Each structure stands twice: as C-alpha cells, then as structure tokens.
Amino acid sequence: MITTAEIDDTIKSVLDLMKGWLKSAIDNLSKLYLLHGRKVLFKDGDTPVHKTLHFRYYLSVNNADHRKSITRLLLSGHRLALERLRWTEHRRPRIEMIRRKCCFCETEIESPEHALLDCTANLSLVELRLKTMTHIYNNSPELPAIGSIESADLLQQMVSQTHTIQLLAKYTHEVLVLFNTAPMYIPALPVHWIIG
Fold first, then answer.
1. Can you give the residue ranges of every domain in the chain?
2. N or C: more exposed end of the chain, with fewer CB within 10 A?
3. Angle 165-181/123-139 helices, nearest 10 degrees?
4. What pLDDT was estimated at residue 193?
5. Which is more confidently placed, 193 or 172?
6. Spatial CA neighbour of 51 closest among 42, 61, 43
7. What is the pLDDT at residue 55?
8. Phi/psi of residue 89, each to 5°?
9. pTM for the predicted model, two decimal places
10. What string of DSSP letters covers the chain?
C-alpha cells in the first residue's frame, strides 16, 4: 500500500525535478540571458532570492502594449537586430552576432541593453532615456548608475523594481517603437553569400 506521505514525497520530487529542468533550460539558452539568475523580492527590506516559477512584476503592467513590449524584450521576442538578424529572410542569410549592429550608431550590437541604456546616436532616444531614467532613479536611488556596471545586469535590476516597472515598461515600449520605425542596419554581405 502507498501511504499519503509517499504520495506527497513523490509529488514534491516531481515538482523539484520540473523546477530544476526549467531553470537549466532557461540558464542554458543564450537568448534568455536577461532571465538568467533573476531574483524575486518578496517584501521590502528582504534579500532577493532566486525562484524559477513565480509571477513576475512585469506581467502586472496595466497597459497591454507596454506589458507585451517588456515581456518580448526579456524573452528575446523583440525585433532588435540582435534577434532579427538571427533569422534568414528574403534570401539573406543569418548574420553572425558580432555584425548585428545598431541602426543608429552602427558600431555596437543592437541588443536590449544597448537600445535602452547605452546608445547615444539618436537625439529622441537620448531625450527619452534622460526623462525616464530621472524618474526611475528618483524612485529607486539604490540602483547602480548607468555605466557603473554591465548594462545587461543593470537592466535585470531595473526589471526587478516593483515600484517603477510601469514606467520601465512604458519606456521599453517607446524605445522599441523608435527602433522598429528606423531601417535596420544590414551589414555588407561577403561576396560568396551574394553569388551563392
């Protein structure tokens, strides 16, 4: 006979294995680098802890367009060059990551952190960033300054801020719209790709 305790132990084992598999799947997929090691803050003053399965604050953003934008950004479902040039389109081959440059500065990889935090080649983008980051830093002065840590790490920390997530999601949406309306920078293809 199987006891209730054995059934409970089996359920717990299955859940633990599922969580372990899910964490491993996320951590081993380079496209999901913004989700790697993410932590949850349960109460103000607590130390953030890693929790694989947990309702994320960005999913409670009120505006549907803003919620979709920040979710797409984190899950690599955006249309920035980092992701878009990974695809083959219209007889254009997949572009290696190092050549997926920003449509504005044409020097750095067009990644989420570059678009939101680093690029200074577009005046509208810079003005939007200055306005938004002023509000975010006024509400979250504990955040490291832009440029003081890796931009991807800073973006991860910003996403974990519950009290500024609505503002960050709105900013994310506006930045993605700005990038989506600009023509994508397509690097010159080697001759053997064009002839082949």
1. 1-38, 55-195
2. N
3. 170
4. 54
5. 172
6. 42
7. 83
8. -140, 140
9. 0.85
10. ---HHHHHHHHHHHHHHHHHHHHHHHHT-GGGGGGTT-EE--STTSPPEE-SS---GGGG-SSHHHHHHHHHHHTT-S-SHHHHTTS-BTTBPPPPGGG-B-TTTSSSB--HHIIIII--S-HHHHHHHHHHHHHHHHH-TTSPPBTTB-HHHHHHHHHT-GGGHHHHHHHHHHHHHHHHHSPP--PPPPHHHHH-
Rg (CA), the chain: 20
Q: How far is CA 97 from CA 38, 75, 100, 189, in A?
A: 24, 17, 5, 14
Q: Give Cα 16 to chain centroid, integer Å.
A: 26
Per-residue pLDDT tens digits for 124-177 = 999 999 999 999 999 999 999 999 999 999 999 999 888 899 999 999 999 999
As a whole number of angstroms, the distance between CA 43 and CA 147 comes to 28
